[in-house]
Amino acid sequence: MKIIKVKDNVEGGKVAFDIIKEEMLKGNVKTLGLATGSTPETLYQEMVKSDLDFSDLNSVNLDEYVGLEASNDQSYDYFMRKHLFDAKPFKNNYLPNGVAENGAKECARYDQVIADNPIDIQILGIGENAHIGFNEPGSSFEGTTAEVQLTESTIEANSRNFAKKEDVPTRAYSMGIKSIMQAKKIVLLAYGAKKAQAILDTVNGEITEDVPASALQNHPDVTIIVDEEAAKML
Ligand code: GLP
């Protein structure tokens, strides 16, 4: 794992953007794996203000809340359009459909999307409990797309974006850890003291399904971009 320490999320966004840009200019990127949450927002700002053209690229997102329409302003579909896709059109933007009628079929459909669009660079945030996508502690490293139950701590952490905690969906569709690990290159971003323990466990801890992001120790090309607070336990 390559660790890059940055001053703050603004510098982190620029560093992550430079990695994407370099790979794009080398012709190495057909599909970007994208993430939501507040962490990648500064990266998306860099992408939006850049002169890069993404219209030949596909994007595949990690996850979506079950039960939210794409038009709901709390959906990850909405988030991606607001922060990136409205300003920078891609060829195709893939996300799980939060209101699919049949969950099992939706997971199978999304696995096919991932198989048809092998991810060249996967952007990741990390939960305070070291979840990636919505793969909570205990998720199998062999997992593919699944409908998952969110933990109480994730619901609590994500409730800051909702009017009240009861509004936070309790389930989500998430790309599995096995699929994330198939990305050629992975860039994980983490900012703030709340992520320090998760970063320590991810980088220096035991590789265990209790720490979903620890799977990344087994990946040949992972860059972790952390600010001082998130890196303080390393
Ligand atoms: C959600 C997302 C994750 C994200 C995490 C952290 O649970 N499913 O992909 O990494 O939140 O969010 P934030 O970046 O806002 O701290």
From TrEMBL:
One of its GO terms (cellular component) is cytoplasm. Signal peptide: none annotated. Pathway: Amino-sugar metabolism; N-acetylneuraminate degradation; D-fructose 6-phosphate from N-acetylneuraminate: step 5/5. Its EC number is 3.5.99.6. SUPFAM superfamilies: NagB/RpiA/CoA transferase-like. GO terms for biological process: carbohydrate metabolic process; glucosamine catabolic process; N-acetylglucosamine catabolic process; N-acetylneuraminate catabolic process. Residues 26-219 form the Glucosamine/galactosamine-6-phosphate isomerase domain. GO terms for molecular function: glucosamine-6-phosphate deaminase activity; identical protein binding. InterPro entries: Glc/Gal-6P_isomerase, Glucosamine6P_isomerase, NagB/RpiA_transferase-like. Keywords: Carbohydrate metabolism, Hydrolase. It catalyses: alpha-D-glucosamine 6-phosphate + H2O = beta-D-fructose 6-phosphate + NH4(+). The keyword Hydrolase applies. The active site is at D63, N129, H131, E136. The keyword Glycosyltransferase does not apply. Belongs to the glucosamine/galactosamine-6-phosphate isomerase family. NagB subfamily. Catalyzes the reversible isomerization-deamination of glucosamine 6-phosphate (GlcN6P) to form fructose 6-phosphate (Fru6P) and ammonium ion. This is Glucosamine-6-phosphate deaminase. It comes from Vagococcus fluvialis. The gene is nagB.
